[in-house]
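Predict the assembly for these two chains.
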Amino acid sequence: VKRNTAPARGMRDLLPAQVELRDHCAAVIQRAYERFGYRRVETPAVEHIGLLTGSGGGENEKLIFRILKRGEKLDLEAGGGLDELVEFGLRYDLTVPLARFYAEHAAELPNPFRALQIGPVWRAERPQRGRYRQFTQCDIDILGEAGELAEVELIQATSAALSALGLTDFQVRLNDRRLLAALVRGCGFAEGALPEVFIAVDKLDKVGLEGVLEEVRGKGHPDGALRRLQDALAAALAPEAARGAPVPEGVALDAEGEAAAERLAAVRTLASPGLPPGVELLFDPTLVRGMGYYTGALFEVSVPGYPFSFAGGGRYDRMLGGLIGREVPACGFSIGFERVVLALEERGVQPEGRPSRVALLHAPELSAAVVVAAAGLLRAAGRAVATLPQRKKLARQLDELATQGFDGFVVLEPGRAPDVRSFQSA
Amino acid sequence: VKRNTAPARGMRDLLPAQVELRDHCAAVIQRAYERFGYRRVETPAVEHIGLLTGSGGGENEKLIFRILKRGEKLDLEAGGGLDELVEFGLRYDLTVPLARFYAEHAAELPNPFRALQIGPVWRAERPQRGRYRQFTQCDIDILGEAGELAEVELIQATSAALSALGLTDFQVRLNDRRLLAALVRGCGFAEGALPEVFIAVDKLDKVGLEGVLEEVRGKGHPDGALRRLQDALAAALAPEAARGAPVPEGVALDAEGEAAAERLAAVRTLASPGLPPGVELLFDPTLVRGMGYYTGALFEVSVPGYPFSFAGGGRYDRMLGGLIGREVPACGFSIGFERVVLALEERGVQPEGRPSRVALLHAPELSAAVVVAAAGLLRAAGRAVATLPQRKKLARQLDELATQGFDGFVVLEPGRAPDVRSFQSA
């Protein structure tokens, strides 16, 4: 009897070709980031439940996989509910653990500290196509740099990483939430309506300008505010606006907004010369990004032909204070690792530089000594060799091996001169 | 106020230099195994609790981190105890998930299938020095190969991997549990006493011959059995015995034992010519290895100067049957990844081939444009560059940077010709 051997619901197994492509992506990204001074750190998969639920994780906190207490700590009869039973949880992102890591180790780390993290996170989301309950995140963060050098570097480094992966001709969109606030205020919306309008504008990519207005309409906003929002968004979306100034002409900014706009303009001027060919930095005052912890610049990478962003990030200067007991400026950029892998898979990208994989098919009448010696010889010649018993239906076996990632084969049998044949030329 | 930011009890954070050494170890091991046809696969960290508790994991099953059910599945009032609350668990090894993986995907995989796994596992052990509740395992397994080609290849491949890591002049000890059984039976112990004697012999490395006898003594075993065991173990431990035959002269074998001895001798003869220089294959009929699932050959790697083994494995032909519904011969070898990393750390091994890491120290009066341009130039020259604000106490800053993994530095300030200096030569 065969038992149910599917992975846990919403999780997945990764076969050799999938792991190879993922490792390739991770290695390319890591090499690119290392040139900007980023080094990989790792934190455990498991964190104290109190850290995970008290760090502004928003909706993600509802998706935590909770780990039971153990031994005498676990009292099923205590009746204290969930909190009494749970000690740890699986991390739902890499930002909260990084904040804890930095609070714990800052004295041993350079200042500013540049971290690269590539690792799995877990979220108990309703499983759906292309969305998994364990998936890989890929973040860089610079902690302790308050100046615009941080934003400039994150943009240049992430552009270099995506470009090295073969994703070219993309746009990095740039905003500061204070600019969108000024724009919405300038249209005549009340201060209290801002969050609601932000949420609507955040869907611009998916529902279009008319969809955004539809969501805001009929909620008692002042006369003309909606019409002015329509005009302002249309102006912001005009291609010439994206290359001009952080906000469209006519948007009134307060002193704080003015400073944000100036800084954003400086980031664009400073970062643009160091971008890979085909990459452009654009202003987009409609860029929102969901997480509430952002305090300054926001970035997002759009690749033409894909309806989602490949990377996003921003400045979050107030997250670490609660853990460390002093304010630490922080800025991060996260590559959508799973999306990158999917895109490269669709493009049929083959990792390079690996040794050629040869299947050594041995006839049953051969002695083990002959097979071991032949495999050793081929390995000495630089091939990766897997020995397999030759099957009766050789043609079918060869077809299968070609689909299983072998580059070539040798048929080893008495009375036949051994010859390494490639599947490509066969 | 600074909150408690230590990792969860028994877990650890990995700093950049630690991650770099671990990545180096994993890459060297992977390259070595790939030449033998092994390819990496991955399974999720989370498995159904029923798989984890019903797969012969022995003591490890008691150490599972259990994950709570969620949403409406979780009924705290049901009163059914632990089983009612738990749906998943964190994997405690890579063998049980591999068996599930193979049962699920065998049709898409070559036969025999060669798997390499390098990944974290979790065990809720009492934390102690050098033992962590999340640690990395590194296994190769060949599934579907019943012949001694499997043992020969695992031994050669693992020897090549350890040798590539710089661990040379080691011994691979070889046994089959049926041989130790014959030896113990031949001493006059009753069949029912075998497990107890095995457990004692398993401690030979730690407690010595006298310690083993002490444990067996005074339990009503037949007259002379203890003395004969002493003689037989002493004979087995003699250096000449290790290079002679699988069991010492005079040990009587039944037909099954005879076949095991013959096969083991063949494995040594076949594998030895392909071993890296300084590596020797020795018979050791006292080798037990704890796991109950082994059915044939057993191996263990001892490196002189270390009181523990660096790798171990064996044949386990009856584990996969229960999951797949048909017998699948299987054989595996597991490298003690954490021990390898510790040994290389102690030896001060530095990963090679990475770009030189330069700290670009910029004076406060410099414009961001100058800093960005200078960093870009150095990167174009092949360096990995991290920009850092120059501190007032430059000498102290340089000392810190040298310990933080930088290879060199540039002081960028007005009126000073920039120059890349190495910490080595400074």
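The radius of gyration of chain A is 27 Å. The mean pLDDT of chain A is 92.
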